[in-house]
Design a protein that fits this description.
This is DUF4352 domain-containing protein. The chain has 1 helix and 9 strands; from the N terminus they run ββαβββββββ. The chain has 110 residues and is mainly β. It starts with 15 loop residues before the first strand and ends with a strand.
Length: 110
């Protein structure tokens, strides 16, 4: 969904901002630390890197580096916003739960 960055959001001069809700479901028997998702994650728009928006006061509120410990059987959701070109296109979000595990790739229009 579209969002409007606040006055002090970074990066500056965003042509268009898109916001996603990321939901982590822990289906394992061990606590899961979401920190690995933020450092192994990747966002692309139309085949180029999409910059994370760091926003503390606008509609894109969030920093894209939300971390938490998700207990077994629990879920955790956070917002992640990205700067993309003005025209619509395909967004790809990639997450990797741990460095030695397969990546999960989500693709859709933005």
């Amino acid at each position: 969904m579209a969002c409007k960055p606040g006055e002090f959001a970074q990066p500056e001069n965003v042509k268009r901002a898109v916001k996603f809700t990321v939901t982590v479901v822990n289906g394992t028997a061990k606590p899961f630390d979401t920190t690995t998702l933020t450092f192994a994650g990747d966002a692309q728009f139309a085949g180029t890197k999409a910059e994370t928006i760091y926003d503390s006061s606008g509609d894109c509120k969030g920093v894209g580096l939300d971390t938490a410990t998700v207990l077994p059987g629990k879920t955790y959701s956070y917002a992640a916003s990205y700067s993309v070109p003005a025209e619509k296109g395909e967004m790809q979000l990639t997450f990797q739960p741990e460095f030695d595990h397969d990546k999960a790739v989500f693709v859709g229009p933005a």
